[in-house]
Amino acid sequence: MTDAKSLTTPRSALPFGGDFDQVFNRMMRGWPFGWPEMAPSSAPKALQVFDHVPKVEVKENGKAYTVTVELPGLDEKDVKVQVEDDVLTISGEKKVEQTDDKTHYTERSYGSFTRAFTLPADADRDGISAKFAKGVLELEIAKTANPPAQVKQVAIKAA
């Protein structure tokens, strides 16, 4: 994505745009579905367990950031949201539905997931609310009027 803001602002200063977050999220986005089949076979695929990587959308307006996470098949009790230091973490687990039926093929994914984002400087860590409806988690992160200073000057004393 190339826009005027990203050309003039370091990526680490952009909301939710830390280099680590971007690299990690790009790497994990399609994994493991991008792995090639080791040995082609005409036999039906058995049920496999994959790490579930939910899709995320981040929006911003003048008052808040909105993070929307698609979590089909989960309930709010299956999801955990926490903030530690400057990192917002969304985690949970989509459990395999146990039946006596033999599964021949599936494109559904199961397993645990974790998505972590570095909060922008103007995010109010105490002003975060969450709603969960129809398999969609929506977090609203209020902006603070007085974000903490990003640069701290250290005084140098003569020895």
Q: How would you portray this structure in words?
A:
The protein has helices at residues 4-8, 19-29; strands at 56-60, 64-70, 79-84, 87-94, 111-118, 123-133, 136-143. The protein has 159 residues and is mainly beta. It has one domain (14-33, 44-143): Sandwich (Immunoglobulin-like). The chain has a four-stranded antiparallel beta sheet, with no helix packed on it. Strands 3-4-5 form a three-stranded antiparallel beta sheet, with no helix packed on it. Mean pLDDT is 75; it is low at 1-12 and 30-50.
Give a quick precis of the structure.
This protein is 10% helix and 33% strand. The chain is mainly beta. The N and C termini lie far apart (49 Å).
Name the descriptors:
159 residues, mainly beta, Immunoglobulin-like, four-stranded antiparallel sheet, three-stranded antiparallel sheet, elongated, disordered N terminus
| Mean pLDDT metric | 75
The secondary-structure element order is HHEEEEEEE
Q: In CATH terms, what is the fold-level topology?
A: Immunoglobulin-like
The CATH first-level class comes to Mainly Beta
Strand content: 25-35%
Distance linking N and C termini: 49 Å
Q: In terms of per-residue confidence, which ranges show pLDDT below 50 for 5 or more consecutive residues?
A: 1-12, 30-50
- Count of DSSP E strands? 7
